[in-house]
Structure formats: structure tokens, C-alpha cells
Amino acid sequence: MAETGPEVREVLARSGAALLRAGCAGRGLALAEWSNRETSTRYERPGHHTLSLYLDGGEGVVREDGGVSGGGPDKLCLLPAGHESRWRIGGRLRLFHLYVAPETLAYQALTAFDRDPRHLDLAERTFSDDPATAMVVRGAVLPLDWSAGADRMALNAACHLLLHALLRRHAGGEAGPVRGGLSPALRRRIAERIEARLGEALTLDDLAGEAGLSTFHFAKMFKASFGIAPHRYVVERRIARAKHRLAEGRDGLADIALACGFVSQRHFTRSFRQATGTTPAAWRRGR
């Protein structure tokens, strides 16, 4: 993955823009309100998506890298993570920004729309008309106290409405459900994580978090990739490690059980018998 540059808010702050207020709307979601005037700004591959809505002014803004002008109240700009752009600010303006981590947008695509995040293509927009988004920002986001705990749930809900609007109107790529399982790189990473943690209490939520997917969709994609459910795969890998330890002949059954992630020797024996048709002790003697 290419290195990302400074975040949009860092660039704005260095350019002399005034931060009027800022807040957090949940994991991977931050928002800010800015005022700015008579300056220039350059964004170089920020690591997050930025939804920008002009609240006041903006008619004197020019996107220099595309020669585009035409800003103004309720005009929307959408700047995907990793983009590059140059802006000249003429006159005064006030802006709303929503900063979205790519993994947060991907998670929403998967869980809310059953869309494969691997093929998500967020469009770049400059001075677009999007009345529905403007209505949510002005009617549901700006009136809230971003720092008040009492408004946190409402703020999170409003920002998720904005995410869903982005996915419905500004995100291309495959619109069908997830198919084909995990990518080769992710499959390899998940398998390595399982091997490294066989002696620990692994949960489906842990593995789904590693993949950046909902638990439900991770389980479906895992089975499509490995041919069996995650739980069964983990048990098989634990049995395989136990066989290796049994063959070495150095450790007792209780020690092997704990080293391979079984909660007790009894649990180990039961699982081993279900998988092989014999007990660990009998398997060791038959070697």
C-alpha cells in the first residue's frame, strides 16, 4: 500500500483555516466545521475519505488541478482516501467536513448493503449538488452539540445516514453480495493468526475484527475460502498441533491440552476422539 500523506484537517490547520468545532461520531468517524479565506491548500494522499459541504460562501474557490470552479452553499465535494488535489480559496467560506476511515466505509458497505468492500470504488466529486446530503448535514448534524454525551447517539445515527448516502449515490463497483471468499492475502493472514494463537481462547469476533468484517459475513467468506466453518478449522489445527506434540513424546496430556487451546484434558480427549476415533493416549501408543 502506498504511503498516505497528512490528513485533510492537518493540512487545513497549517494553511490558516480556523477550526470552529470538531467531534467524534463513532469508530472511524470524525467531523469538523471550518472557516477559511484567501489562501491555497494542497492535499496529498490523505489516509481517510472526506465529505465536504459548503455552508456559507465558496463561490470563489477553484480546484486548480482540474480547473474547476463553482462552489457555493450546499455544494458537495467528495475526496476519497489517497487522492491528490490543489485548491485556491477566494473570499470567505464556512465548511462542514466528515472524515471517514476506509475500513469504516467498507464495513458499512458490507453490513448495510451486502456489498463486497473489495470492489468498492468511491467516486471523487467536486462542487456537486446533493440536496439530500445537505439536508442531513444542516438538519441533523449541525444542530447537535458534538461534545455532549447526550447527543452522541443522535450524532452517530446522523453520520451513518451520510455514510449510507455516500454508498448509495457515490460509490461504484460491484453491487452484488459478497462472493468468492477472502482475498489470498487476507486468507494467509487469518491462517497465520490462527496458528499463532492456537493456545489461546480464539473467538469468531477476534478473527472477524482482524479481517475488518462483520462476524456474520466473515464466517460466510471464511467457509468459502477454507471449505469449512471457522470453528471446525480451528479445532482441526489444534488437533494437528496436538498430534505433533504427542509424537514428540515429551509432554503429558494435560500440558499438551493447554498448549493446544483445549480448556482441560477431558475437553482435549473428547475433541481428539471425535476427530480421530481414538484417544490421545491410544494414538500415542500406536505410533
TrEMBL record:
Residues 188-286 form the HTH araC/xylS-type domain. Keywords: DNA-binding, Transcription, Transcription regulation. GO terms for molecular function: DNA-binding transcription factor activity; sequence-specific DNA binding. It comes from the Bacteria. SMART domains: HTH_ARAC. It holds the Pfam family HTH_18. PANTHER family: ARAC SUBFAMILY, HTH-TYPE TRANSCRIPTIONAL ACTIVATOR RHAS-RELATED. This is AraC family transcriptional regulator.
